[in-house]
Amino acid sequence: MIYTDTRDSSVKTDFRTAVMGGMNPATGGLYIPVSFPKLPSSFINKNPEPSFRDIAFNMAKPYVEGEIPDEDLMAIIQDAYPFTPKVVPVDSHSYVLELFHGPTCAFKDFGARFMARVMSYFNKSENGTLHILVATSGDTGSAVGSAFHNVPGLDVTILYPEGKISKIQEKQLSTFTGNVRALKVKGTFDDCQKLVKTAFTDAELRKEFRLSSANSINISRLLPQSFYYMYSSLVVKNRAPLDSKLENPAIISIVPSGNFGNLTSGLIAKEMGAPIAGFVAATNTNRTIPDWIATGDYNPRPSVETYANAMDVGAPSNYERIKAMYSLEQVRQMFASYWLDNNGIKEAITECNTKNGYIIDPHGAIGWKAWNDIRNGGMKDLVNGKKGDYTKPGLTANVPEWANQVVNNNSVGIILETAHPAKFGSTVKDAIGREPAIPESLQAVMELPDQAIPMENDYEQFKAWLKANLAK
Ligand SMILES: *Cc1c(COP(=O)(O)O)cnc(C)c1O
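^ thats the input. predicted complex w/ pyridoxal-5'-phosphate below
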């Protein structure tokens, strides 16, 4: 596969360079494959559907062709995914896609574990340590730390906004020892992301250290997230006729979004032939993308803190990829968009539990509420010309091409549940009166001592720290 760059389409490079570099240091752009090969329809139409790992292997294969032989790719997939996503029906037209069955209980395990194994594979033929710098608004840090911990030749520095992530999240990313460490930055997630981006474009630093990223800007995190979109859409395609009594319903993926890496992965799956009719971009008060879809103006802004804090992103980095892949008009045909404030998030957790008996986390709750509003009159109102006010929570004024399928009750939704509700126990407790049971892996990490290193929001100080502390 040839990879190009969101800022310069004359760039042509291979998977290895795209993965090891993270972003293109010459342009500051993000790597994307030049094509998204379709899986054969004989594969997509299997009933019962292929296994998750089988899908993962077949989807990854064209992107690593000529660089990772089949048997090595198979070993990477087997090692990365001892767990699978779970499709849970919550009513006759709605499914929750549980993406929290990995070691850190969030969907980022899918991308991070694949990326760590691919990097380690490529690094075997290099000299010296590869330094991963990663900014996190919550779950990236723990997923990346866990995926890379004790992997030889790789070293990870995590930056997170001090005081802006939950206690469990902080424990999960600040208690590593050895090759993984965390810096708690006096600033926001966007500040952390900026420090990392500045380091990548710093020629002096790059001369001294081999640097790479592990944010969703890295293509090796984005590609594997497309596996579960394909998997869930094939599961639902096969079982929806039984659950919903609809022969061929439009399948809509509802995606709680921050940096929009997850949703970009969904677009890749659709390009590759996943039977997904469209997407709902669901956000919190950080509604940069819903505003863009509604108005056509893209206005990145400082992030605002919310209960769905892993989505507190004001300048989503994958906007650049979405723009490179599609026009605004195409985006408007594929996407509905929706946002909720903190009150709405809490009410949605309560309502989901009351109506469906399902305990959902604050991120998934926005998706759940979006789908329920869309189905119960929201999309009909839009189709009938009611525009609403995009500055108020709810469905944003845009009528996607699949709108009539929803209005005619010929659709089913897959709501991506991006984290285990226990990671946000106090918000969930406020909403439903009790804490969700804590999985064992989370309980164990709570007992470990916190090792985070304090850091000012200041590039020179950050750079000096790196020079003094990273191994050459
Ligand atoms: C990271 C994260 C998101 C947002 O994913 P993006 O790829 O940044 O859009 C949503 N929910 C949870 C729980 C997350 O950790």
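Residues 106, 108, 138-139, 216, 256-262, 310-311, 363, 418-419 surround pyridoxal-5'-phosphate (CB under 6 Å).
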